[in-house]
Write a structure and sequence with these properties.
This protein is an alpha+beta fold. The chain has one domain: Jelly Rolls. The protein is 25% helix and 28% strand. It has six helices and 16 strands. The strands form four sheets. Strands 1, 2, 3, 6, 11, 13, 15 and 16 form an eight-stranded antiparallel sheet that branches. Strands 4-12-7-10 form a four-stranded antiparallel sheet, with no helix packed on it. The chain has a two-stranded antiparallel ribbon with strand order 5-14. Strand 8 and strand 9 form a beta hairpin. The radius of gyration is 17 Å and the shape is globular. The protein starts with 6 loop residues before the first helix and ends with a strand. Bound molecules: 2-oxoglutaric acid. The site of 2-oxoglutaric acid has 7 residues, from strand 12.
């Protein structure tokens, strides 16, 4: 396997909890993912429009993300096994890894909502707790169109309390982490094809898409050890899709 993650990047992950890598994706594959994200959105929109239910149409238009994207798109099911992700699994999880959760997260320009500060581990407490998130820029992601922000080093703060927050015109609504010092926050602007790989304890958020025409598309697969459980149920949790066994890709 050709290495896409340098020793410096791995060291930065251990020190600060993140790094940004070149994903090594073929341009045609990135375009195919972008097209899939649009196709799935348009399919859902058409279904809602056919139902004649105005609220359902609005819900699709408001919809930020499609989770379990591998079940909606055969392209995504393969994309989730791209070498950059498998190498990150091998280096930061171990020789056996599962796709934990994966979503297509689109921010269209006319709906510039903010996604609040949170740790991914703050949404569902898993056993074991920590895993990796690979926020992948399918299109360019920048300050104008609502890129993610992180606080380098924040995984060392441990798991923070998260409180639910309502959805509003300005916020997606979900959970928001309870902490006071965001002075170390930095935006993570990425070109299409770059991947921000970070700990599930990394504090992150994303800004509003204030651009006139730029659609921000992110694909966000997360990987964990096999057979993890959710603490609130004691039961297996997540996508539970094996991608790596004994250090080798599983299809
Ligand atoms: O893609 C985004 O805007 C942020 C998504 C995110 O942080 C999440 O779903 O955990």
């Amino acid at each position: 396997m050709m290495s896409l993650i340098s020793g410096e990047q791995a060291a930065q992950f251990r020190e600060l909890g993140y790094f940004v890598a070149e994903g090594g994706f073929a341009p045609a594959l990135l375009q195919a993912m972008s097209d899939e994200m649009d196709r799935v959105y348009q399919d859902h929109l058409r279904q809602a429009q056919a139902s004649g239910d105005a609220a359902a149409v609005q819900a699709v238009r408001n919809r930020r993300s499609f989770s379990q994207f591998h079940t909606l798109s055969p392209v995504a099911a393969q994309f989730a096994r791209q070498p950059i992700y498998l190498e990150a699994c091998l280096k930061f999880i171990g020789p056996d890894a599962d796709l934990y959760y994966n979503q297509a997260a689109t921010k269209p320009p006319e709906r510039g909502r903010v996604f609040s500060w949170h740790q991914d581990s703050g949404y569902v407490h898993t056993e074991p707790l920590e895993y990796i998130t690979c926020w992948t820029a399918i299109t360019d992601s920048n300050l104008d169109n609502g890129c993610i922000w992180i606080i380098p080093g924040s995984p060392k703060w441990g798991l923070l309390e998260h409180l639910p927050e309502p959805e509003t015109g300005e916020r997606y609504g979900g959970k928001t982490a309870q902490f006071s010092d965001e002075s170390g926050a930095i935006p993570v602007e990425m070109r299409a094809g770059q991947v921000a790989i970070f700990s599930s304890l990394m504090l992150h958020k994303s800004g509003a898409n204030t651009s006139a025409h730029s659609i921000r598309r992110g694909y966000v697969p997360q990987y964990h050890v096999p057979h993890l459980i959710a603490r609130h149920t004691g039961q297996p949790w997540g996508d539970q899709v094996p991608v790596l066994r004994g250090g080798r890709r599983v299809d």
